[in-house]
TrEMBL record:
GO terms for cellular component: cytosol. It catalyses: cytidine + H2O + H(+) = uridine + NH4(+); 2'-deoxycytidine + H2O + H(+) = 2'-deoxyuridine + NH4(+). PANTHER family: CYTIDINE DEAMINASE. Its cofactor is Zn(2+). The lineage of its organism: Bacteria, Pseudomonadati, Aquificota, Aquificia, Desulfurobacteriales. PROSITE patterns: CYT_DCMP_DEAMINASES_1, CYT_DCMP_DEAMINASES_2. Belongs to the cytidine and deoxycytidylate deaminase family. Keywords: Hydrolase, Metal-binding, Zinc. It comes from Desulfurobacterium atlanticum. It holds the Pfam family dCMP_cyt_deam_1. The active site is at 53 (proton donor). This is Cytidine deaminase. Its EC number is 3.5.4.5. Zn(2+) binds at residues 51, 83, 86.
Amino acid sequence: MEELLKLAKEHVKHCYCPYSDFHVVAVLETISGKKFVGVNVENSSYGLTVCAERVAIFKAISEGEKNFSKILIYSPDGTPFPCGACRQVMAEFCSEDFEVIVATENKILSYTLKKLLPFSFNLNR
Ligand SMILES: [Zn+2]
């Protein structure tokens, strides 16, 4: 946990959020302990913005990783609960007991993916 939070804080400076000024960093950890960091990347055409969580997940998938244990989402600007789109992307690759940690400067909250997205869309159900 401490290591993930430290890594997240180190990457705040890489966030690209000139429109919202809401910095978000996600650190995704694989079951084998590898870590993938994502930051939010905004765009002047707002709909093209990609959240930090999806950046981290897509980086990991692109590197051949598919088994994830947890994600820490950190912001110094507010409580960075994952949006609905990111929750659904997590559901694509992660089990229901995947841990989602939401962190700010002074609080750390922990949830399972099942708690955050109880009825995710899934073609196999
Ligand atoms: Zn999102």
